[in-house]
Amino acid sequence: MARKTAKKVSTYKDAGVDIDLATELLSRVKKKLSMAKRPEMLAPIGGFGGLFQIDLKKYKNPVLVSSIDGVGTKLMVAALMQKYDTVGHDIVNHCVNDISVQGAEPVFFLDYIGIGKLRSPLYEEVLGGIADACRKVGCAVLGGETAEMPGMYGNDFDLVGVINGIVEKDRIITGEKIRPGYVAIGLPSNGLHTNGFSLARQVLFHTCRYDVDTELAELNHESIGEALLKPHTCYWPAVKAAMDAGLSLDGIAHITGGGLYDNVPRILPKNVDAVFHKSTIKKAPPIFKLITEAGNIDDSEAYRVFNMGVGMVWFVPADEAKQAIAICRKAGFKAFVCGEVVKGKKKSVVVD
Fold this sequence. Notes:
The protein is α+β, with helices and mostly antiparallel strands. 32% of the residues lie in helices and 23% in strands. The chain has helices at 19-35, 74-81, 85-100, 122-136, 197-207, 224-228, 236-244, 259-263, 286-294, 299-305, 321-330, and strands at 62-70, 105-115, 140-148, 157-168, 183-188, 215-216, 222-223, 251-254, 272-277, 310-316, 336-343, 348-351. Strands 8-10-5-11-9-12 form a six-stranded mixed β-sheet. 42% of the residues are buried.
C-alpha cells in the first residue's frame, strides 16, 4: 500500500503551536515583567536559566525556602468571566504566603503556563498580574515557561508558580515553641482565595444554576464572578512587620485547602491542640454563607474545604496578642483573636 504524504509542507503552526505569536505576546509584557526585579538578578528574562546572586552582606546565615503551587479550578471562573489578571495575583500571593509562614522574604518567582491554544489578552493579563503582584512585595520575576499544547488542554490552561525566599536560620518560624495558653490571631480572607472552587462551582453553577453575571443582594449586589475572582490576599507585609518589631510570632499557618482542620496541625507541637471559635469570625465574606446554605454543607465540611473567612493564623503568647493585632491592623488587616492553644494531641478543633 502506498504511503500517504501531505499535499503541502507541514508546519508547527498547522499543528496548533504558534511560536511567532508567543514571541509577540511576550514582547507586550516584557516591560512590566522587567519592573518586577531585584538587584540580585544577574541577567534579564529570556535566558535558559535565571541567575540570582544571594547578597551575603545582607544575610549572615541564609536559608532558602521554596514552594510550588497552582491556582486550580479558579481558572475556570476566570475563563467564564474572560478576566485573567487576578489569577496572576492569586498564584504569586498564594506562594508568597506559603513561605512567609516560615518567616522567609520572597526574593524570586517563576511561572508556568500550560495552554491548549495561546491567545490574547489572556497571556498578557496573566503575566501582567504576576508582575504587578511580585513588584508589590519586592520579589523578582526571574523567568517562566509557556507551553502551548494543543490536544492536551483543549481550550483550557493551567497556571503554576514557584517561589523562592530567604530567611536567617535563627529566625525560621517553625511552631515548635507554641505552648498551651498561646492565642490564635486570625487574619481575614477576602473570599475563597484559591481553594474550594470545585465545590463552590458545583453549588453555585449547577445546584443553584447561577452564572458569573448573577448579582445577589446577599453579596452586596456584587456578581457571583466578582466575588469568586477576588485575588488571594497576601499577608507578607504583616508578617514582615511583626518580625521587624520583635513579636514572639512562634507559629503561622496559611489556611488553604484543608482549612483550619488540616493546615494548623502542620505546625503544632505533638502535645497541644488549637481550639477555634466560629463566633469570633464575625465578618467572613458573604460568599461563604451563600455557598454553605445553598449547598447544605455542614460546618465540619465547610471548615475543611474553605478558609471560612480566616486566611492566615498566627500563634503568639497571650500577653502579646494586643501587639500582634495592632501590627496587623497597621499593615491593613483587621486581625482578631479567634482561638487558643490547649493541651492535646496535635489537632485543630472548631467549636461554636
